[in-house]
Specification:
Largest sheet: 6 strands, mixed
Order of helices and strands: HEEEEEEEEEEEE
Helix content: under 10%
Oligomer: single chain
Number of strands: 12
Shape: globular
Radius of gyration: 15 Å
Strand content: 35-45%
């Protein structure tokens, strides 16, 4: 039953949402990684995001995974309806690579309420078929409130002030 529920959540996440003010992490701004067929391998992360220690997921937010500035995954939040994380917003994200392992993943969080992009503190190594976290035991991502509008758009151009200056 839990697996069926998670499959339905994943389907809804990938195919039934749209948003209006999201960052240009993909060419058509639909929140779905458009070129996932370009990759041989994938893995999943089910996570929650905390900014300055406060759970920060709300409807319309996004989390994205990047390898050297190239987007490799994206997810919108879903409210966990049961268990120890009931009421928490979680992000069910598939991440893609052509390497079986070894690529370093960086993460960014987009807060729709403040129109702010946060750099998340955690980095992870991509491993094909990885499954990190679930709705009962979420992978936790944190930010100390540092924000950045710097990321690489789908066509490879840099957006924002990528010099590191505030």
């Amino acid at each position: 039953m839990l697996k069926s529920y998670l499959n339905k959540i994943l389907f809804i996440t990938l195919f039934s949402f749209s948003f209006t003010q999201a960052p240009s992490w993909d060419c058509d701004d639909d929140g779905v990684l458009d070129n996932f067929n370009d990759y041989q391998n994938n893995g999943s992360i089910t996570s929650a995001v905390f900014i300055d220690g406060v759970n920060s997921g709300t409807p319309g937010d996004l989390i994205a995974a990047f390898v050297d500035g190239e987007q490799r995954g994206v997810a919108t939040p879903l409210e966990v309806p049961f268990g120890p994380n009931a009421g928490t917003y979680s992000f069910l994200m598939l991440i893609y690579s052509n390497e079986a392992s070894g690529e370093n993943l960086d993460f960014k969080f987009y807060d729709i309420e403040t129109d702010t992009i946060y750099d998340l503190d955690e980095t992870l190594e991509f491993v094909s078929d990885m499954t990190l976290g679930d709705v009962v035991s979420l992978e936790i991502f944190n930010s100390s409130g540092s924000s950045s509008d710097c990321f690489t758009e789908c066509d490879g151009t840099e957006l924002g002030d990528c010099s590191g200056a505030d």
